[in-house]
Design brief:
By secondary structure, the protein is of the alpha/beta class. Helix content is 55%, strand content 9%. It has five domains: 469 residues, Hydantoin permease (Orthogonal Bundle); 25 residues; 159 residues, Medium-chain alcohol dehydrogenases, catalytic domain (Quinone Oxidoreductase, Chain A, domain 1, Alpha-Beta Complex), CATH 3.90.180; 272 residues, Glycoside hydrolase/deacetylase (TIM Barrel); 148 residues, NAD(P)-binding Rossmann-like Domain (Rossmann fold, 3-Layer(aba) Sandwich), CATH 3.40.50. It starts with 7 loop residues before the first helix and ends with a strand.
């Protein structure tokens, strides 16, 4: 037989080849994750994997962390020397610590959720001196562990291949350092998983070969017979009858005790705590328990297979004779594998050793790097280090530690005494010191308030939402805290039971009775080994894939189809063709009038929203005093009434996102909110951090919240909240399609996530769709007021890190509001009552409300409320345009009146014209319930190059009227319909409220009708100047923003010289309607043409006592012919109204001009020459 089983090339090939494979693989995977899943390696990701690792990967990480070369080799050697007891006591001696450690892991997650290392706790709990002691001991332990890994692993490669042992020590870490630098702790965990898959494959392969398929052994009976024969040839001293098939083994038990005591030294092993830190809180207990039970199968099953096989095959020609030197080098496993499986078996063992060494070393260098980064550099060298600097220090520590580990390269009773004393004295010292110096009254909340998530705002590629998500890990939700408290109790119970089972209940009866396995019992033992190995392998291999199936699917789908994560973008419209009978080329126009008479689309849409009710925010942060009763929060008792008063004062529609928990805590307050006309929307059950909810928890949150709402809707709280329509997730982060599906299933119509998550304004498709109305952090008061947002402020680079005053909030909010008004789009402003806790902050919110109210009165803003505007709800992309004129280019077979080449104006309201329709039959077709009006949802508008239109609703244009004037016949028809219905007569004094497009065409029509005198009002002096240029005799009044309706009415009456007989109101704004009413004479009329919000208040008794008629106009009927006549005869000149002209290809510029107050646009037209 050759001196070594394998050639040197095999050793170098495995170390260099697989090292390069993992290094390149992890680098490529990190690149793909960054590209397709926005996963950027900041310091938090590098060291903690965002504290989100699930149960399966936690369990596989535990298995891999606990599996080093000694696990594979020593356990098999013990089994070879002492029989079945060696395999069992090796596994049991190191398994119970995992169960005990689970308790520590649960407490770590609960006490310090933002921790990066467990030594951070030591620094706060024991001070600098205690911190340094922990660092020194942990470092020494890590040195010993890494030296054992590298030297032990290299020695095995040397023994099996003859490669240079020093070369092995240097080469083993190379690939590890590269993939660890690339992927951090997540790379370690992912490689942990791949390593455990290989190791379990070897365990299962060995079981099948030894006990079912081998030509040398092949059945439990043959193994049993050969082990009984081996006991006669080489009996085991201290074993019952010298047998290998007995649990009564003095040396086996003593070695188990040594191992049991020694492994408790891992309580200062930073890498084990590091794995606990990466775990999601809900995954900690099951992850460690499953991991412990699964790890036991490796030494137990592997040694029971190859250790017993090596002993059973001694003396056979296929088996290498094992010497005492071979035993000391742990070569029983590879020799047995080679004898049973040939050269491939030896290679497989080398691969397992490589996997075990690299996984253990990677875990150690990441953990030591974390200690160096956060406990040395971050604590004592640069306490204010940014996330980017911490990440660089982490990378440096990885390299330094790998070099340091390379450079630093018994009798049983003394071992028992040494380890036992070390274990027991630690507990005794703690008890003695406590009684001697008294218990330390330590405030455990300091671990939450003094350990913070690193600020990664200077790390390239991280979004503000990712940083905010990282920050959310600093605090536990009440549910998480409760679960971890309960989990600790469960862990203590489970750990105690399992320790008793593994240490006493299972082995001791067989030890005490000196039982020697019978043939039947040995078969049972082998069957148990198979079952345990299969269960562990299946759990560790399949569970991570099942838990991560959606992420895996999303990743591969994105990679295959090239879809990158969504980024914020502008809302875009889709213009489509449709219609019948005739087709023409059109020139359409987009009105400057932001009221948009048909309420189809708002260029600038705003939502005033409120988040959080009562003490849920304090409960969420564990800050609510236990002595204070629930249901007494100042924000509800004191702040909320002021909110409601201000909303009413400025007539601002609002949505309050409340937590369903409050339905029973604050029912009266919620009734008050709902009765004030404020929409009550949903904000989770009790403000759970939505990003942390797994699929089951998210579904349960929906069920619990909507059940509570349903109970109230049918019980005493009927009418409180009939049904939520909107949802905003706490933290703003949702789980994509999973959350949207739950929203649809529960009847929600819109959702308001964070724009920083990549959410885009969406009104997409159909009756079951969910509108997406995102918010931005720049219009969230917490962004300015709370210290927790310092990292986000720094990352955006627009504000100092420290919290800001209310003056900054007002300035920034107004900037954002005006920006949206100028450029178009949607904006949500967000306030929290619990943060509006000073007069200054309340005043700041009032300034924002006041500004919104002003801009609305200027006609620039529509409020978006619950997924629709007024009664018109948009469910899809909508083409705009209902003011058009063009030329006929093709006619249908039934067209009789018009021909190709005719110039026409389009009347865009198409009634049903059925004899059964009363409105159509009586000539009031504008009231037809089945009317189709272009650009009114769901009908697309006429702003397109080609359009099909019914002949009956096309009006021929004389040569004296241009296409531009033809398009303006539509708003002129609105004005003519209003003047006709108002009964205006020659010489009647008239007031027109609003100098927007409708007000200006009403002015032209009233001037032609002979009204005198005429007063027109507006907030904007530029519009009044336009009115004066159109009709020089008109008298103008600029409305004062801060004056009430009565004061402005006095200005109007003064300009008119009398009280108004007729007021034509063209804005639809409540305050403007009030002004018109107060300006009217006894018996006068106020005629409202403008479109306003659904519900408005009026000075009812004033209207009643003065017998003022309040009337309204909806669109028009049969006015186009009259409008054409007035324009063609020169009585009304519409041309000056067109201030801006663009081609169809310049559509975006046209909309920007129409939406920008600085452009001073009245009518913006799109022309197609």
């Amino acid at each position: 037989m050759p001196e070594t089983i394998l050639p040197q090339g095999a050793g170098y090939g495995i170390i260099l080849g697989f090292g390069a494979l993992f290094a390149l693989g992890m680098w490529y995977l990190a690149t793909l994750l960054a590209r397709f899943q926005n996963e950027v390696q900041g310091s938090e990701m590098f060291m903690t994997a965002k504290r989100s690792v699930k149960t399966g990967l936690v369990a596989s990480a535990v298995v891999s962390s606990w599996t080093i070369a000694a696990t594979l080799l020593t356990s098999s050697t013990w089994c070879y020397e002492y029989g079945v007891s060696g395999a069992y006591f090796y596994g049991a001696g190191a398994t119970v610590q995992i169960f005990v450690f689970a308790v520590a892991a649960m407490e770590l997650k609960r006490r310090a959720p933002g921790a990066h290392t467990f030594l951070e706790l030591a620094r706060i709990r024991y001070g600098k001196a205690g911190h340094v002691v922990f660092i020194v001991y942990s470092t020494i332990y890590a040195i010993i562990n890494c030296v054992n890994i590298l030297v032990g692993g290299s020695a095995v490669f040397t023994a099996l291949t003859g490669m240079n042992v020093i070369a092995g020590v240097w080469l083993l870490p190379v690939g590890v350092v590269i993939y660890t630098l690339t992927g951090g702790i997540k790379a370690t965990i992912l490689t942990d998983y791949s390593h455990t898959v290989v190791i379990y494959a070897m365990v299962l392969a060995g079981l099948f070969i030894v006990y079912t398929r081998s030509d040398v052994l092949g059945s439990p009976d043959i193994v049993y017979d050969r082990l009984r024969a081996a006991a006669k040839i080489a009996p085991v001293p201290g074993n019952a009858g010298g047998e290998y098939l007995t649990m009564h083994s003095q040396d086996g038990v003593l070695l188990g005790v040594v191992f049991w005591c020694a492994v408790f030294g891992t309580t200062i092993d930073v890498q084990l705590f590091q794995k606990a830190i990466t775990a999601d809180p809900s995954a900690t207990l099951p992850g460690y328990m499953i991991g412990g039970l699964s790890w036991f199968s490796i030494p137990f099953c592997l040694a029971t297979t190859f250790g017993l096989a090596a002993r059973a095959m001694q003396g056979l020609p296929e088996m290498h004779t094992i010497t005492s030197r071979d035993i000391s080098q742990g070569l029983a496993l590879p020799y047995a594998a080679q004898a049973l499986m040939g050269t491939g078996g030896a290679v497989f063992v080398l691969l397992m050793i490589f996997m075990a060494c690299t996984a253990g070393f990677s875990a150690d260098i990441v953990s030591v790097a974390a200690v160096f980064t956060y406990d040395v550099y971050g604590a004592y060298i640069n306490p204010t280090a940014s996330g980017g600097k911490l990440l660089k220090m982490s990378h440096l520590a990885v390299v330094i530690w790998s070099v340091l580990s390379i450079a630093t390269t018994s009798n049983i009773i003394p071992l028992i005494i040494g380890n036992g004393v070390s274990l027991i004295l630690g507990a005794l010292y703690s008890i003695i010191c406590t009684f001697a110096f008294g218990a330390d009254d330590f405030d455990w909340n300091r671990l939450k308030t003094e350990i913070h998530v690193a600020d990664d705002s200077d790390v390239k590629g991280l979004t503000s939402e990712q940083i905010a998500q990282e920050k959310s890990h600093e605090l536990l939700t009440p549910e998480q805290d409760r679960d971890l408290r309960q989990g600790k109790v469960k862990a203590m119970i489970i750990a105690t039971v399992l320790c008793l089972v593994f240490v006493i209940i299972w082995p001791m009866p067989m030890y005490g009775t000196k039982y020697v396995f019978s043939r039947g019992f040995f078969k049972f033992w082998v069957a148990l080994t198979f079952l345990w190995a299969f269960g562990a392998a299946f759990t560790i291999t399949i569970m991570p894939l099942v838990e991560g199936r959606r992420t895996i699917k999303l990743f591969f789908t994105s990679m295959i189809f090239g879809k990158k994560p969504k980024e914020s973008g502008a809302l875009e419209g889709v213009f489509v063709e449709g219609g019948e009978d005739s087709e023409h080329r059109s020139s359409g126009q987009e009105e400057k009038d932001a009221r948009m008479e048909e309420r189809a689309v708002a260029r600038a849409a705003f939502a005033f929203t409120i988040d959080n009710m009562g003490e849920v925010a304090d409960l969420d942060r564990n800050l609510w005093p236990e002595s204070q009763p629930i249901g007494s929060h100042y924000s509800v008792k004191e702040v909320l009434p002021q909110f409601l008063a201000l909303l009413k004062k400025y007539d601002v529609p609002a949505t309050y996102f409340i937590e369903s928990w409050n339905l029973t805590v604050y029912p009266d307050a919620i009734k008050q909110i709902a009765s004030s006309g404020i929409e009550v929307a949903w904000h989770a059950w009790r403000h759970e951090a939505w990003s942390k909810l797994d699929e089951g928890a998210e579904r349960d949150n929906f069920t619990r919240s909507f059940d509570a709402m349903s109970d109230l809707a049918t019980g005493e709280g009927k009418g409180l909240v009939d049904h939520y329509r909107g949802f905003r997730a706490p933290g703003g982060i949702i789980h994509g399609d999973r959350t949207l599906k739950l929203c649809r299933d529960h009847g929600l119509t819109y959702i308001s996530p964070s724009a920083e998550q990549g959410a885009v304004v969406s009104l997409d498709g159909g009756k079951d769709s969910i509108a997406v109305l995102p918010f931005k952090w720049r219009t969230v008061d917490a962004y300015y007021y709370m210290d927790a947002f310092s990292g986000l402020r720094k990352m955006k680079g627009e504000l100092p890190e420290k919290s800001q005053g209310s003056d900054v909030l007002v300035r920034k909010y107004i900037e954002e509001i005006d920006k949206v008004i100028e450029t178009g789009g949607y904006l949500s402003t967000l306030f929290h009552p619990f943060l509006t806790n000073t007069p200054e902050r309340l005043q700041a919110m009032e300034e924002v409300m006041k500004h919104l109210a002003r801009r609305r009165e200027e006609g620039d803003v529509h409020f978006w409320k619950t997924g629709g505007i007024g009664d018109s709800v948009i469910h899809h992309d909508l083409g705009l345009g209902h003011e058009s004129a063009g030329i006929i280019i093709k006619t249908g077979s039934n067209v009789k009146r018009l021909k190709v080449g005719d110039r026409v104006a389009l009347e865009c309201g198409i009634p049903c014209s059925k004899p059964t329709c009363e409105a159509c039959r009586t000539g009031r077709y504008n009231a037809c319930p089945d009317i189709i009006f272009y650009s009114s949802p769901p009908v697309h508008g006429t702003l397109r190059r080609y359009h099909v239109h019914p002949e009956a609703w096309l009006h021929p244009l004389p040569d004296s009227i241009s296409y531009e004037e033809g398009a303006l016949l539509e708003p002129l028809s609105v004005a003519l319909a209003g003047i006709e219905r108002s009964g205006l007569r020659l010489g009647d004094p008239l007031v027109i409220c609003g100098a927007g497009p409708i007000g200006l065409v009403s002015l032209l029509a009233a001037h032609a009708a002979g009204a005198a005198p005429i007063v027109i009002t507006d907030l904007d002096q530029n519009r009044l100047a336009m009115a004066k240029s159109l009709v020089p005799r008109v008298r103008t009044v600029q409305i004062q923003r801060d004056a009430d309706a009565k004061a402005n009415a006095e200005l109007i009456k003064g300009a008119l010289g009398q009280e108004a007989k007729l007021v034509i109101e063209c804005t639809g704004v409540e305050s403007s309607i009030h002004t018109g009413i107060y300006a009217s004479r006894f018996g006068g009329s106020v005629f409202v043409i403008g479109v306003g919000k659904d519900f408005q208040q009026i000075p009812f008794m004033h209207v009643s006592f003065r017998e003022i008629d309040l009337r309204f106009q909806f669109r028009y009927k049969e006015t186009y012919p009259k409008a054409i006549m007035l324009v063609s005869e020169g009585l009304i000149d519409l041309k000056p109204l067109v201030t801006h002209r663009f081609t169809l290809e310049q559509g975006r510029e046209a909309f920007e001009a129409a939406s920008n107050p600085a452009a001073k646009a009245v009518k913006v037209q799109l022309l197609d020459d």
